[in-house]
Design a protein that fits this description.
Elements: E1 11-15, H1 19-29, E2 34-38, H2 41-50, E3 52-56, E4 61-64, E5 70-72, E6 83-86, H3 93-100, E7 109-112, H4 119-126, E8 131-136, E9 141-145, E10 148-151, E11 157-160, H5 167-175, E12 180-183, H6 187-206, H7 210-214, H8 217-236, H9 252-256, H10 260-270, H11 280-286, H12 297-306, H13 312-327, H14 336-343
Parallel strand pairs: 1-2, 1-6, 2-5, 3-10, 6-7, 7-8, 11-12
Antiparallel strand pairs: 3-4, 8-11, 9-10
């Protein structure tokens, strides 16, 4: 079915339209929003041939024909963008910001929908003529190929905004049935999300779907140790953390260490995960791309170094991920017991 473009909606450009960007953009396009996707030639070719197919754990199954999708590889469409969703990998943030600085109109609002914490500061420093705000995508999306993008975990988008701001964007999101929550201070929740994202590396190293990986107590023990160490480092740096879901961060290590039968019972009631879901870092391994480990577990090492303390658990995980990156052979598929032994201190 062809979608009728609503001319009175703001122009949204999604920069770095990979898995997350194509899912978000596709949901907006499907409701008639004015969206341009900017990304790599490979995904552009898939979208041109197959259009977009969007599915998720809640039963959404939407198909958008290629003729309704504006997917480009150049940056020209940024010149009249009202909102720019930055979805590039964290390691590309500075280079990307420098590339787009002269192209944006002064009224354009730039939203960082990226993993990690540093992106907002890096974008703000370079794009100082524009309003830059924090954003958060709490769910995972996997690229199943041929223009098919599947959301495998739950959660709602969030941006940092004062009451009444960005009403036009929020209206587009509401029409797309893709809610955006607003917070006057999103940073504590971003730290909460980073804590949850510490599992990205463990999932990638395991090579398993998230449900299967988290169903193994030894993998959960690794994650519990990583989170416990992280909470200590954040506390020493006087960094406030707020839950990115409905589980207080301090309780996560306790929950993760529970016996399998009890963990599964509690997790089933508090955390919805599709059997297909995997972490984005696992997808990086499969596609031989550089991961965002420096902006997740590596961020904790940076903070630990500022206080002249060690963070051996997160350090071991970073080293294992970087070793796998160098090998370029996909996930190392490290067994749970082996991984647990490798991070004991």
């Amino acid at each position: 079915m062809s979608n009728v473009l609503q001319s009175d909606t703001p122009k949204i450009v999604i920069l770095g339209a990979g898995s997350i960007g194509c899912y978000l953009g596709g949901r907006f396009i499907n409701s008639g929003a004015n969206v341009t996707l900017i990304g790599r030639e490979k995904i552009q070719a898939d979208v041109k041939q197959h259009g977009l197919k969007l599915t998720d754990l809640d039963g959404i199954d939407a198909c958008i024909v290629a003729s309704d999708i504006d997917y480009v590889t150049d940056l020209d469409s940024l010149s009249d963008a009202d909102y720019v969703f930055v979805a590039v990998k964290s390691g590309d943030t500075v280079v990307t910001a420098k590339q787009i600085k002269a192209l944006l109109k002064d009224s354009a609002v730039v939203i960082s929908f990226q993993n990690g914490i540093r992106n907002f500061d890096e974008l703000s420093d370079i794009l100082n003529q524009n309003r830059v705000i924090r954003g958060m995508v709490p769910f995972n999306v996997i690229n199943k190929g041929s223009g098919h993008f599947h959301r495998g975990t739950e959660g709602e988008l969030a941006i940092e905004a004062k009451p009444g701001e960005f009403s036009d964007l929020l209206a587009v999101a509401e029409k797309s049935n893709l809610a955006i929550n607003t917070y006057e201070n999103l940073l504590p929740i971003q730290w909460g999300k980073l804590i949850m994202n510490l599992n990205n590396a463990i999932n990638a190293l395991s090579g398993l779907p998230l449900v299967e990986q988290l169903g193994n107590r030894d993998y959960r023990k690794v994650l519990a140790k990583s989170i416990k160490e992280t909470l200590k480092v954040l506390s020493l740096n006087n960094i406030a953390v707020q839950s990115a879901n409905n589980i207080p961060p301090k309780l996560l290590p306790v929950l993760l260490n529970l016996p399998n039968w009890l963990y599964k019972k509690i997790a089933a009631a508090s955390l919805k995960i599709d059997p297909l879901a995997r972490s984005s870092m696992y997808e990086d391994f499969v596609r031989n791309r550089k991961t965002e480990i420096d902006f997740l577990n590596g961020e904790i090492l940076h903070l630990a170094n500022k206080k002249s303390i060690k963070a051996p658990v997160n350090n071991a995980i970073v080293e294992l991920v970087k070793k796998a990156e160098k090998l370029n052979q996909g996930s190392p598929e490290i067994p749970a017991g082996v991984l647990l032994d490798s991070i004991k201190n």
